[in-house]
């Protein structure tokens, strides 16, 4: 019984693919088939597979049905968390999604799912990614304050959601946590953030995130051991479509 994670499948069985990267990048060629094959090889029916956002390019549920079917057909218990491209998923209507798709798919937002004695907590997160203004040496001279203020509000909303989820799990007796974010926990300028601070406050063991695509973005945030927690980037192209085993034998 193991816990696996991967993000950013960006499926498009019923929607139009417009991403230049995905249309032309070598790593994206036949990625659905490659992932299905690797998943079938490493994940068993007793395992849990967390899909860390950006599931589908579909703009609404009817454009996602085949993508969901693809995910439902993967082995194990499937838990989906929200990504920035998941237009079909209104956070306030998560209960409705679960009514419709459980037990095949579990949509996790505001609350927790259990895995052994761990509580899995998830939200989309947010990182302010600029724009930053750089001088000719690459030194930061300033940034867009309006966007930064907007980003701060989004971060506060996400932190509030996470705190409520952690408290709910704690109230139910959980003491061990795994945190899933879609966005990286820090931006390229930060060493720490509200998300890393919260992970420390609740003594989270693993922080897992996705969203970063392409060689130049893979090292935008923390990876490995940092201040007592382990951080993992699990975007599909980074993992070359092999799900990461987070916990298990
Ligand atoms: Fe993505
Ligand atoms: Fe994303």
Explain this structure to me?
This protein is α/β, with parallel strands linked by helices and 249 residues long. It has a single domain (3-247), classed as Metallo-dependent phosphatases (Purple Acid Phosphatase, chain A, domain 2, 4-Layer Sandwich), CATH 3.60.21.10. It has helices spanning 20-24, 31-42, 65-72, 94-101, 145-171, 194-201; strands at 3-6, 48-52, 77-81, 105-107, 113-115, 118-123, 132-134, 140-143, 176-181, 206-209, 224-226, 229-233, 244-247. The strands form three sheets. Strands 5-6-9-10-12-11 form a six-stranded mixed sheet, covered by helices on one side. The longest helix is centred in the middle third of the chain and has 27 residues, at 145-171. It is globular. The N and C termini lie close together (7 Å). Bound molecules: fe (ii) ion (2 copies). One fe (ii) ion (FE2) is lined by residues 8, 10, 54, 85, 211, 213. One fe (ii) ion binds next to loops.
What's the count of strands?
A: 13
Radius of gyration: 18 Å
Shape: globular
**Major sheet attributes:** 6 strands, mixed
Instruction: Please state the second-level CATH architecture.
Output: 4-Layer Sandwich
CATH class: Alpha Beta
Helix residue percentage: 25-40%
Poorly predicted residue ranges = none
Adjacency order of strands in the biggest sheet: 5-6-9-10-12-11
Residue-averaged pLDDT? 96
Descriptive labels:
single chain, alpha/beta, Purple Acid Phosphatase, chain A, domain 2, 6-stranded mixed sheet, 5-stranded mixed sheet, 13 strands, binds fe (ii) ion
């Amino acid at each position: 019984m193991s816990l696996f994670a991967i993000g950013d499948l960006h499926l498009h069985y019923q929607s139009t693919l417009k991403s230049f990267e995905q249309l032309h990048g070598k790593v994206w060629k036949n990625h659905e088939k490659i992932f299905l094959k690797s998943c079938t090889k490493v994940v068993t029916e007793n395992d849990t597979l967390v899909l860390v956002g950006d599931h589908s390019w579909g703009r609404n549920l009817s454009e996602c049905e085949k993508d969901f079917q693809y995910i439902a057909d993967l082995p194990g218990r499937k838990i989906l968390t929200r990504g920035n491209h998941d237009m079909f998923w209104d956070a306030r209507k998560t209960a409705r999604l679960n009514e419709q798709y459980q037990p095949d798919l579990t949509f996790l937002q505001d609350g927790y799912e259990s895995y052994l004695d761990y509580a899995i907590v998830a939200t989309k997160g947010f990182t302010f990614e600029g724009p930053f203004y750089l001088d000719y040496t690459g030194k930061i001279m300033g940034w867009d304050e309006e966007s930064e203020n907007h980003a701060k509000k989004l971060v506060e909303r996400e932190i509030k959601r996470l705190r409520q989820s952690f408290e709910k799990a704690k109230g139910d007796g959980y003491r061990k946590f795994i945190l899933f974010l879609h966005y990286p926990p820090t931006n390229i300028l930060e060493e720490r953030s509200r998300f890393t601070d919260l992970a420390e406050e609740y003594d989270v063991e693993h922080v897992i995130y996705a969203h970063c695509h392409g060689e130049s973005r893979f090292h935008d945030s923390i990876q490995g051991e940092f201040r007592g927690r382990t951080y993992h980037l699990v975007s599909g192209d980074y993992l070359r479509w092999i799900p990461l085993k987070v916990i298990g034998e």
